[in-house]
Design a protein that fits this description.
Blueprint: H1 6-10, H2 16-30, E1 37-38, H3 50-63, H4 79-91, E2 101-104, H5 107-113, E3 124-128, H6 132-140, E4 147-148, E5 153-154, E6 157-161, E7 179-183, H7 195-208, E8 211-215, E9 241-246, H8 248-251, E10 259-262, E11 268-269, E12 272-273, H9 274-285, H10 291-300, H11 303-329, E13 334-336, E14 342-346, H12 353-364, E15 366-367, E16 369-370, E17 381-385, H13 390-405
Parallel strand pairs: 1-15, 3-6, 3-7, 7-8, 8-9
Antiparallel strand pairs: 2-10, 4-5, 9-10, 11-12, 13-14, 14-17, 16-17
Helix pairs in contact: 3-10, 5-6, 11-13
Bound molecules: D-malate.
Amino acid sequence: MFQLNENYLKLPGSYLFSTIAKKVKAYQDENPDKRIIRLGIGDVTQPLAPAIIKALHEAVEEMGHAETFHGYAPDLGYAFLRDTLAADYQAKGCQVEADEIFVSDGAKSDCGNIQEIFAPDSRIAVCDPVYPVYVDSNVMAGRTGDYDEATGTWSNVIYMPCTAENGFVPQLPEETPDLIYLCIPNNPTGTTLTRDQLKVWVDYANQVGAVILYDAAYEAYIAEDDVPHSIYEIPGARTCAIEFRSFSKNAGFTGVRLGFTVVPKDLKSNGVMAHSLWARRHGTKFNGAPYIVQKAAMAVYSEEGKAQLKEQVAYYMRNAKVIYDGLKEVGYEVYGGINAPYIWLKVPESMTSWDFFDYLLTEANVVGTPGSGFGPSGEGYFRLTAFGTYENTVEAIGRIKKLKRS
Ligand code: MLT
């Protein structure tokens, strides 16, 4: 009889955002007259920018003619895009070469898959709260030990609490990890690390021989000068860090799908480059991101595209301000929202994160994400996303303010 991968059976419940979607659907089915506003999952709502649409149309047209048709894409990405991405890094003072960039169908896939190239007994360290993909993908690989329902923790994972008490800055762990996941600007808390704070991590990783898996999916939202856009701004990062980038949040590609990962050739274990293993994995399991999507990504770096996307980011950050200011006005303790499209708020003392989820859903018909869904230190917190429309955001905050005042 065949055996299933029992590690999957250890995963508690379903993926966080699937659980929320099911709950919201059940409520909507029972209350069809209610207009629910969704500020839960960080999915964009603005249409693709005109420069991107133009590039997509042109690429689709090319696909309709034998002379310009494209079949399988190069598995690591088209040179036109990798060269452009490398030039963008270099223009910002980061040493990243085109052949160190691996184009993929999105940062979520890469964040989930990267663990495959590391030893099965690698010890992982995560911020707590954390984007669930990092832990869950390691559970599937059998790396996390046993789950303790009472504490919501895995026995073989090093947790680095990030709460209001420590300013959401993870402290260097006492036990030594092999793989350190950092997401800056942070999902879910919307907070960041300064250049100096990130340097502490780069120095530490180099000192103990760990790898930082750096998720920079939200870098386009950084507004403050001392927050790095890439870990490669920090000297020493090439020997200890892999960086994930996404087109989802900066260019609205959540439904188009594209991302990329940088694996520097200087990142080595016992003389072997992590780069070679990721290239081998990519070549074996991935047939390249679509030509039309990679062409669309080129528009992100055109002058026209840059200007349009700057406006789009500003649109979402205006929502972030509406949420941040509105919640503060009625007495909520709020964080994030300055360099990130997420606002992290403290729920009333008498409630858990899930209680607050139910309360907002039923009383204000607003959907958010319970902090405890991101890890035990997220208990008592709640996340709202700035990716809704402006009108819905204003209305949702109006409803929450009214509720608080009543
Ligand atoms: C989130 O809401 O945390 C994100 O949208 C999830 C993702 O990017 O996969």
